[in-house]
Structures are given as structure tokens and as C-alpha cells.
Amino acid sequence: MNAIQIPSGTTSRDVIVSIASLNKSFGAFHVLKEVDLDIGRGEVVVIIGASGSGKSTLIRCINGLEVYQSGHLTVDGFNMPTEADRKYGGEKELARIRKGVGMVFQQFNLFPHMSAIDNVAIAQMRVRGRKPEEARTVALRLLERVGLRDHAHKLPGQLSGGQQQRVAIARSLAMEPHIMLFDEPTSALDPEMVGEVLDVMRELAREGMTMIIVTHEMGFAREVADRVVYIDHGRILEIGTPAQIFDQPTHERTRTFLSRVLRH
Amino acid sequence: MTATVLGWLRYNLFSKPFDAALSLVVIPLLTWAVYGLAHWILAEAHWEIIGGSLKVLMTGLYPVDQLWRAWFAVATLCAMFGAGLGLSLRPGRAALTVVASAGTLMSAVAASVTDMTSGMLVAASAGLGVAAWIGVHHSALGQRIVLPGLLVGVAAIFVVLSPPGFEAWGGLLLSVILTITVSILTIPFGILLALGRQSRITSLRVISTVYIEVIRSVPLILVVYWVWIIVPLLAPDTSVPSLLRGMAGFALFFAAYVAEYVRSGLQAVPKGQIEAARSLAMSSWAVNVDIVLPQALRVVVPSLVGQILDIFNGATLVFIIGLTDFLRVGQMILADPQNSGRTYEIYVFLFAVYFAIGGAITYASRRLEAHLARGSR
To answer: How far apart are CA B377 and CA B218, in angstroms?
Structure first.
């Protein structure tokens, strides 16, 4: 299968991620059902939903960490290979897509045997072919941007959760992605550290990064999201501006979910 | 003071009737055995036999006029050992004292049982080892060149020792070189097998799995013997020395075990590590080399060091393919009728040396385990 590059600007709204009737199952368990979602360049989309609703799975499909069985998924102009395609290759397409898509995980997943600066530098050297000095200069600049220049030579184990997550964001940014995926980036953090990570994300949104965020921080969603997507049992039930979703949800289930998460 | 001693005795040896009975039987027996052994070692044994056969015990039938080659190997081995220490153990005062006194003791023994030159050479080798230890510990460059340095060291030993012919190698030197060479060979081979066993490519996965399982279900001696007879069948016109065939057999055998250790290490690396690396668009190769293996090998290092002991002890089996390792050399000395009364001296000496080396390896493995556990998350 060939990845077909769509010249930018040919689609009406400059869509960067296009998902059409996507289906995904883990064995007999149908996780994502006929998902349709287009995301525009520079847009910030927050995905909410109960745990197990498939929201993490959806964003993991966008950089190919999960395979999908049917439907269409185009990322940054490249077609994401389906499960069948990946049985016989698809590695090249995957690598091309991943170069443009950064991902931040709930558990940070920093490389524990490398200092913060090396965590940020390694992929630049291996994927972008940068020289070690150049990669480290870039890494230092990015660590400064997330406020961790002074911690550049510490190992992840010596950093707090919030600091680790900021290093993880810097590590993704080092690949100069066009899209950033955030999979519950603050869920594993102590409450007092949530703010520092959200600040970095807020800054990214302001700079015009395309961001797809799975989060339970509803206040943050309301503040930065251009659109909020509510997923329920693997289906997109509702899409709208934060005001529409949070203040006038049309579906009964959205209302129930929001009343549960917003009560406390 | 007396009360403390009595308290300790009572608590540890006589706290219950059964303990007391056991202590009453075991303590006199042990005292008698230790006294008997000490008396034999100090008063009755004829240790001249060890001094007289030290050259044979250490190097087997290696030509006497070529012994400088063996001394080169000893010095290189000491430097390699010191460099290895430099990576893992701080040259603090206590550790240095232990190593320095061991070196002094050994050179004194060598000087007294053979001649002054040997004593000086042992002392010089020990000094070289200590210098390598301190040098590597204190220099970042030194630490970076340790691994290539070890390979160069082994290669140099082979180049320098080989002119008199591989058949001439023997004694403790043969056992040590075989152990080190095999240990080094098994690691890359074992890693490849472990990766092969997890490969997405079916043929690689099947071959690796079958290899590992087959080798692990047969005895070492069979593999060594089998490699020894099959090489001449496969290449009838060449004559590969028994020593190299033996090393190949050992390496093929122990690689399967290394593969299983490495596999357990690979499984200990959290899945999120691979996902993070993949999401940065790193290739499978880079993910393995830069992210997964360094973490997996950290977990496995103590087991790999422990396996060096298995290889060293297993090296006593090479006599079946006609090599004269340390144990075999001892038996050869006893085969001489005029030494027939010295069986105990030889075997006690062999026991002491095997025990000392084995104990040192076990200790190193434990230290590494503790050291790595402290450094992990």
C-alpha cells in the first residue's frame, strides 16, 4: 500500500487528521464503532468520556500504537495502514506518520537509564540524524522552554512526576511534530503538580499546535479546547464547543457523565 | 562480657533441647575436623609438590622457554580484571587494602616456591591490575574504552600465546582463558537468540526457540563432544585445533542459557518504554539497541556474571576432548608414580584455588546485584 500525500490546502478546512467510519476491536470486544472525526490544523480537541469508553484507544490509533480493522484514517496527509496492511509491512508509512505526531503518556514513559537531556536528544539523533552536540543543544532549549534547564542532567528517577511529564513533552517536541497527542497527561500526577503540566500545554495551544487531548481536567478543557468530543461505549455521541458540551449537552448520557465528573 | 558471651551461646546454640543436643554433637565434630585439617596442612603435608609442579599446574605443557608469553597473558588478564573492577567497585581504602595484600601474598608465595623473578612478575601484574582499576574508575575515557579494551585484551592473549600451538595450552591459564573467551562469545550470540525468539519473523522465531530448547535439554558434555567430532566431518581438509572446537562447543551451549536470561530481562522492560520509543518514530533496531537492551541487560548482569562461574566449573570437562585444564593437569601430576603419595596435597590445592576463584565470582555477582538494584527506579 502506498501512502498518498494530499497536498496541503486541497481539503476545505485544512484537515490534518481525518477519521472516517473507523472500527477497532480487541478480539471480540468492539472498542471503537464507526468513528468519524476531522481535526483541523491548529485545532485543540479534547476527548472526554467514561473510562473504558475507547478515548485512549482512539488517540493511540492516530499514531499507530493500536491497529484498526476498517475505516479510513489519514494523518498529516498520510494514510494510516490498517491491521491487514501491517501484517505485510506498513513500517515505512508508520515511521513517516510518527515523525509528525508527538505523544505524551499518562505514565510519562521516560527512558529511566538516560538523563533528561538524553531523553530529549536520543530520537533526534536516531530518527532525524542530528549530531549529538546539535541534538543536545536543541534538547537544552526545549528543557528551558518547559522550565527544566537546571534539571537537564538528572535521571528521571530523580525528578518529580510533574517534572518527568514536562521532560516527556519536551521529548516529543524535539521531533518537531505537527500534532501532539496527550493521553491523560495529568492522571498519574499528585494534585499539586497538575498545574505545571497544564501550563506547558496551555502555552503549546497558544502557539498554534494541533492538539488532541484525553483528559479528566474539565476546567482545562473548557479553557483551551476549540471543540470537545464526548465518547460513550466506543461511539462519538456529541461534538461541540466547550460551551455547547458543558452548558447545553444534547444527550442524556452526556449530561449524566458531566454531572458525575463535575459534581466534586 | 562473660554474660554477653554466655547469652549469645545460649540464644544461638542452646536455646531449645534439640539445639543443645545438636550443638553438643556438631561442635566437637567440627573442632576435631578443623584441628585435623589444620594439623595436616601445617605439619604433615608435603607442599614441595605444589612448588615443584607450579609451572605445570598453571600452564600445563607450555614450553618453558616460551613462558614469557604466559606471563604476558597473566599481566593482560590482571589489567582486564582491574578495568572490570573500575566499572563496578570504588577503589576505596578497604578494597585496595584487600587487593594489595592478596597481590603481595601471592607474589610472596610465588617467590618462595619458585624463584624471585616469578614473584616480581606476579607483583607487577597485580600492580598493573590495580593501576587499571584506579585509572578506569577516575577517567570517563577509560570507562568508555573498557569494553573494546577487553576484546583487544583477549585477542592479544590469543595472538601472543598461540605460536607454540594450541595443543601446548594447559593448566589454570587454559581454564581461565577458555572461561573468559566463552563468556564474551556467548553474550552477543545469546542476545541475538533472545531477540530472535521474540521476532515477528516466524522462521527466525522458530529457529531460535528450537535451538534454545534443544540445547537446554541436553548436557554440556554432549554438546562439547558433538561439536568436537562434527567439525572434522563438515570440513575434512582443515584441522581446527581441539581448543577452538571446545570453545565453540561451550559457547554454543551457554549461549542458549544467556538467551533465556536476556529474554527474562527483555520481559522486565515495561511496554510503555517501547511505545514511547515507537511513538518517537524510532526504528525497531534503535528501539532495541538504545531503549530495550540497556534496560534488559541491567537486570541480567548479575545472572551473566554468575554464569561465568558455571563456565569456569564446566571447563573441567574439556579433558574429554583431550585438553589439559587445571583439574586434568593435577591428575597428570599424580599419574607420575613418584608423586603418587601426594594425592591429598594436589587435591587440596585444586580445591582451594577453585574455591577462591568461584567465591570471588559469586561475591562479584552479589555486589553487582546490590549495586544495580540501588541504581534502579
So the answer is: 38
* C-alpha span between B359 and A176 (Å, rounded): 53
Of B273, B281, B283, the CB nearest to A111: B273
Picking from A101, A126, A175, the nearest residue to B290 by CB comes out as: A126
Contact A127 B298 (CB under 8 A): no
d(CA B95, CA B377): 27
CA–CA separation, A116 and B362 (whole Å):
35
CB–CB of A109 and B273 under 8 A?
yes
Q: Which residues contact B232 (CB under 8 A, 6 or more apart)?
A: B239, B240
Chain A partners of B282 at a C-beta cutoff of 8 Å?
A: 122-123, 126-127
All 3 cell numbers of residue B235? 570440513
With an 8 Å Cβ cutoff, is B280 touching chain A? yes
Q: Are strands A235-240 and A227-232 parallel, antiparallel or unpaired?
A: antiparallel
Distance between CA atoms of A162 and B288, rounded to whole angstroms?
A: 27
Q: How far apart are CA B267 and CA B373, in angstroms?
A: 17
pLDDT tens digits, one per residue of B217-276:
999 999 999 999 998 888 888 888 999 999 999 999 999 999 999 999 999 999 999 999
B299/chain A closest Cα distance in angstroms: 12
Taking the model in full, what pTM does it have?
Answer: 0.80
What is the DSSP-derived secondary structure letter of residue B221?
H
B197 residue type, one letter: R
Taking only the tens place, the pLDDT of each residue in B267-317 is 999 999 999 999 999 998 999 999 999 899 888 888 888 899 999 999 999
In angstroms, how far is CA B338 from the centroid of its own chain? 33
Nearest C-alpha of chain A: how many angstroms from B202? 12
Query: Which uninterrupted H or E stretch holds A136?
Result: helix A132-145
Q: Flag whether residue B367 sits within 8 Å of chain A, measured between CB atoms.
A: no
When CB atoms are compared, the residue of A113, A127, A156 closest to B280 is A127
How many other β-carbons are positioned within 10 Å of the β-carbon of residue B42?
A: 9
> Is there a contact between B276 and A109 if contact means CB atoms under 8 Å apart?
yes
A229: helix, coil or strand?
strand
Measured between CA atoms, how close is B12 to chain A, in angstroms?
42
Tell which residue, B309, B324, B189, has the closest CA to residue B260.
B189
Q: Test B272 with A102 for CB contact under 8 angstroms.
A: no
Q: A47, A54 in Cβ contact below 8 A?
A: no
Pairs of residues, one from chain A and one from chain B, whose beta carbons lie less than 8 Å apart: 63
Choose the mutation target among B199, B280, B289 for the interface with A, i.e. most A CBs under 10 Å: B280
- Tally of CA atoms within 13 A in the half-sphere of A79 that contains its CB: 14
Distances (CA, A) of B163 to B70, B160, B335: 12, 7, 28
Work out the angle between the directed axes of helices B93-113 and B48-59 (0-180°, nearest 10): 110
Locate all alpha helices (DSSP H) within chain B, ordered by sequence: 2-13, 17-39, 48-59, 67-88, 93-113, 116-138, 140-161, 171-197, 202-216, 220-234, 242-268, 271-279, 284-286, 293-314, 326-335, 343-375
CA distance A180 to A41: 11
Whether residue B280 and residue A175 make contact (CB cut-off 8 A), yes or no, is: yes
What gap in Å lies between CA A161 and CA A167, rounded to an integer? 10
Which ipTM value was assigned to this complex? Answer: 0.90
Give the whole-angstrom CA distance, residue A73 versus residue A18.
6
A157 contact residues in B (CB cutoff 8 A): 376-377
